[in-house]
Amino acid sequence: MERKFLNKVFIIEDDKIFGSILKKSLENMGDGYDVQVFQSGTDFFNAIHENPDIVSIDFNLPDMNGLEILKRIKSYNEEIGTIILSGQEKVEVVVEAYSNGANHYIIKNENALVELSNSVQNLSSNVNLRKEVEVLREQIIDRNKYSSVVGESPGVLKVLRMIQKVEKSKILVLITGESGTGKEVIANTIHYNSPRKRKPFVAVNVAAIPADLIESELFGHEKGAFTGATGRRIGKFEEANGGTIFLDEIGEMELGLQTKLLRVLQENAITRVGSNKEIHLDVRVLAATNKNLHERVKKGLFREDLYYRLQGFLIHLPPLRERGNDVVLLSNHFLRHFCKSSRIPEKTITKEALAELVKHNWPGNVRELKSVIERAALISETEVITPEDLIFSQSIY
Question: For the whole model, what pTM was predicted?
Answer without folding.
Answer: 0.66
